[in-house]
């Protein structure tokens, strides 16, 4: 796996950090030498296990924070500013899903998913912007999904939110590029995680049959793509959505 040495000493904030992808992103950034602030809503024990690793000592700070709550976000940013004075990397990873057929989906199911995935991305970026601009060259990576790029049956709420994140990424990249902040997104496909363990096995088998690589992705592979976009290796990449799906949606 690649090591992005220019991430050494950078200050990163990862939202939704106690989930499978979030945890992998934290681990990757820590391996590359960053100091990582990690927000969570539940399951902090997984972050605690990461923080306890000797090689990461003192470089992982877990923050309980609801990214849809402005007061909690402001408190998190104040803590980062007091300790670090800037923010080099923001990874908007927090998200949720509540699948249902559109004919059966109620307003709360739609609103809840859009609020966390899309509004949460807006709110976290808005709260972090001043600190990002204090860094010489900052990066924002939004974790979208292939659901935002193609049909995703039973996920009108999730697809709308993730598609919105892609549009948000492109437009924000145009606004912030000249201000020293690069903005990009990743769109993971079928990734082995708690989420995919809930998918019926026959659906998994059917999906695998049309993936050229014939397997699910690993969270580590998504984290590598995100680290690339956070690093100077992608210094001329702006406003793009990097698809990490084994070729699933190219068919």
Question: Would you mind describing this structure in some detail?
Answer:
There is one protein chain. 43% of the residues lie in helices and 15% in strands. By secondary structure, the protein is an alpha/beta fold. It has a single domain, classed as Rossmann fold. The chain has a 7-stranded parallel beta sheet with strand order 3-2-1-4-5-6-7, with helices on both faces. Helix 3 packs parallel to helix 4 and helix 4 runs parallel beside helix 5. It is an enzyme of class 1 (oxidoreductase).
By DSSP (H or I, 4+ residues per run), the number of helices equals 8
Number of strands: 7
Overall mean pLDDT:
95
CATH architecture: 3-Layer(aba) Sandwich
CATH topology term:
Rossmann fold
GO molecular function: 2,3-dihydroxy-2,3-dihydro-p-cumate dehydrogenase activity
Pathway: Aromatic compound metabolism; p-cumate degradation; acetaldehyde and pyruvate from p-cumate: step 2/7
Organism: Aquipseudomonas alcaligenes
Keywords: Coiled coil, Oxidoreductase
């Amino acid at each position: 796996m690649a090591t992005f040495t220019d991430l050494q000493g950078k200050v990163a904030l990862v939202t939704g950090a106690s989930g499978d992808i979030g945890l992998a992103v934290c681990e990757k950034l820590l391996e590359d030498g960053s100091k990582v602030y990690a927000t969570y809503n539940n399951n902090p024990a997984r972050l605690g296990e990461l923080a306890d690793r000797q090689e990461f000592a003192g470089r992982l700070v877990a923050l309980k924070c609801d990214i849809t709550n402005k007061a909690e976000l402001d408190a998190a940013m104040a803590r980062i500013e007091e300790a670090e004075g800037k923010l080099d990397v923001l990874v908007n990873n927090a998200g949720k899903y509540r699948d249902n057929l559109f004919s059966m989906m109620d307003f709360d199911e739609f609103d809840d998913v859009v609020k966390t995935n899309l509004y949460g991305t807006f709110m976290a970026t808005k709260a972090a912007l001043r600190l990002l601009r204090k860094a010489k060259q900052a990066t924002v990576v939004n974790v979208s999904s292939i659901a935002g790029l193609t049909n995703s049956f039973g996920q009108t709420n999730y697809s709308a939110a993730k598609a919105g994140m892609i549009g948000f990424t492109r437009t924000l990249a145009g606004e912030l590029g000249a201000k020293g902040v690069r903005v990009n997104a990743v769109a993971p496909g079928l990734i082995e995680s708690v989420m995919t363990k809930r998918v019926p096995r026959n659906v998994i088998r059917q999906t695998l049959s049309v993936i050229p690589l014939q397997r699910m992705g690993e969270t580590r592979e998504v984290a590598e793509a995100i680290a690339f976009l956070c690093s100077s290796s992608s210094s001329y990449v702006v406003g793009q959505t990097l698809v990490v799906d084994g070729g699933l949606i190219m068919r």
